Amino acid sequence: MNIEFDVYKQKLNEVKPTLDGLAASLNIEGLRNELERLHAMQEAPGFWDNPEKSQQVVMKTKSAENKLENYSKMTSSWEDLMTICEMAAEEDDDSMLDELKEGFAKLSSDMERCRLQTLLTGNYDGNNALVSFHSGAGGTEAQDWCQMLYRMYTRWAEAHGYTYKILDYLEGDEAGLKSADILIEGENAYGFLKGENGVRRLVRVSPFDANARRQTSFAAIEVIPDIQDDSQDVEIRPEDYEMQVFRSSGAGGQHINKTSSAVRLIHKATGIVVACQTERSQFQNKETCLRMLRSKLVEIKEREHLDKISDIKGVQQKIEWGSQIRNYVFMPYTLVKDTRTGCETSNVNAVMDGGLDPFINAYLTCAATGNWVTK
What we know:
The protein is an alpha+beta fold. The protein has helices at about 5-25, 30-45, 50-90, 95-120, 140-160, 190-195, 280-305, 350, 355-370, and strands spanning about 130-135, 165-170, 175-185, 200-205, 215-225, 240-245, 260-265, 275, 325-330, 335-340, 345. Among the domains are: about 5-120, Release factor (Methane Monooxygenase Hydroxylase, Chain G, domain 1); about 130-220 and about 315-370, Alpha-Beta Plaits (2-Layer Sandwich).
């Protein structure tokens, strides 16, 4: 018999305690009880009378069902793979080795993703994510870099089954992107992306320089949770912000450039600016802006451990040298390295195509253990 079957049987026995531990981390029994409670709520008379509340219950139900289903699939996979090992030993059959290898690789991947999900314990980790892109020092070069990052994150979202919606998009003067705001929708979108908040530095030979000189450019990503929880006591009064109306431009569909329906809100106390241009009407754009502003204020208040919203001060992050959380080098060698976790790869093309998982996983692990490269 092929000795590899014995090797994989040993590997399966080694991962079994980890698989059992995930059941405790996920609180499988608690999830089953929670699911019964949620189903009972949906069957109660008048449940659908409040669309907003019923939708929240439906989302919680789907989340609990997905967690239970995913864990059940992993345990079934483990049992199936162990059966393959035992059958191969009995029948001296090597034909199932490829299936065993592929199955074990998938099981390992699923267990790692499940482990990371158990680390998402923040108040808003399960929420959608509002992601903003800002070009920094470097002119056209930086605006091109900003657009490259926009492509990278939208590809990551698509690869993980998330959807994204463009809220605002301001094209560069000659090329690239000055700024953009998107909403990435799906379970744990914010939890996985929260560590992506910060400045990115790019070193490459500039495609905009006739002398092919090396250039350094900067762009910033801002990630905040999309907060729709009415229990948050945040009142934004009309006198708290300045509202500007302008004609839409850039990406956004058939309503672009037809009417002055785009809206920009400037929060007077903090200087926070939000904009939306892709909804169908000025009213809808304003409502989306207020939702974005409210989310930003709540997130800043909690991140900075402030007692009240009015304590927030308008401190603008500098998008320049020394402030970056991640470096991207395209020449004279290729390297992407996170300054906080030490995670790095030379496969720049894979990262730029949305391969961010190693960096996201490293951040979540360091956040859980406190084992940062820099303090």
